[in-house]
Amino acid sequence: MVCTGFGQALALMAAALDQGGGRSVAMEEYGLTHHLEILDHASFDTPLMGVDDAGARTSDLSDTDAAAVLLTPAHQFPIGVPLSAARRSAALEWARARRAVVIEDDYDGEFRYDARPVGALQSLAPELVAYVGTASKSLAPAVHLAWLAVPPGLLDAVVEAKRLADGFTGVLEQLTLDELIRSGAYDRHVRRSRMRYRRRRDRLVAELAVRSPQVSVTGIAAGLHAVVRLGAGLTASEEEAVCSRAARAGLGIQGLGRFRRRPDPGAAAALVVGYGTPPEHAFAGAVDALCDSLA
Ligand SMILES: Cc1ncc(COP(=O)(O)O)c(C=O)c1O
Fold this sequence. Notes:
Elements: E1 2-3, H1 6-19, E2 25-28, H2 33-41, E3 48-49, E4 51-52, E5 55-56, E6 68-71, H3 85-98, E7 101-106, E8 129-134, H4 135-138, E9 146-149, H5 155-165, H6 171-183, H7 185-211, E10 216-218, E11 225-229, H8 236-248, E12 254-255, E13 270-274, H9 280-294
Parallel strand pairs: 2-3, 2-6, 6-7, 7-8
Antiparallel strand pairs: 1-9, 4-5, 8-9, 10-11, 11-13, 12-13
Helix pairs in contact: 1-2, 1-5, 7-9, 8-9
Bound molecules: pyridoxal-5'-phosphate.
């Protein structure tokens, strides 16, 4: 099902699960507020799973009666770790045993820098996993295209939900993307972009190492953002203070706390720094302004 974005794919899945009597979708404790709001709006409970170095803590699923779990297995958003092999299997086993569904949010899978690509969970169990890819990172959010591979058991309900939502996704945009893919231009664009983003990432990490040695950078094997950990003992107020200084310098940077879906007063301070947005000529200045804000 071609959708207008991951948000719509999630809403369509919620409508389909609702028809089957589902009332709860488990989520990672870190993620976009917007996705929590979509499920809230559809009146779903959203039990939260912890996130650590191996990704979402799938053992937390055993405490829920969720009809689905929403995961970012390739690159946890925003923490940036991949879901470990053991937890990938655990999520699928849980879904199989509970007749539940895994919703796989593969928002930036095209941009993997250091390691081998992480395969889609969906390829291991297409009957259990609803895979969602999007053009928002590979092209631009304004393109408004995402694709949802629906497990067969939910297909009719998703088609009906899409018909009621908006009928169909823009055909000109779909035909244009189709042409880009068939001609090879999409592939070339992704390869070029991967090199460009990798250079940006390396520059960001190198500048921070020299000018802000008190911070550490994590979650950077893939994607278009880095998590910049501010240092031991610092908490939410320092996080906000750095973000305000950065905002005064013209940078839109958010603290990690903005992505936490439940309060954790003791959580260490960190920034989520997207490096894809500035135009090429402004990137060095943006990194410079970030380092000044951290000083
Ligand atoms: C975690 C996550 N999921 C999905 C998306 C894509 O959302 P959409 O396709 O609605 O633009 C993003 C942002 O690009 C994201 O950060």
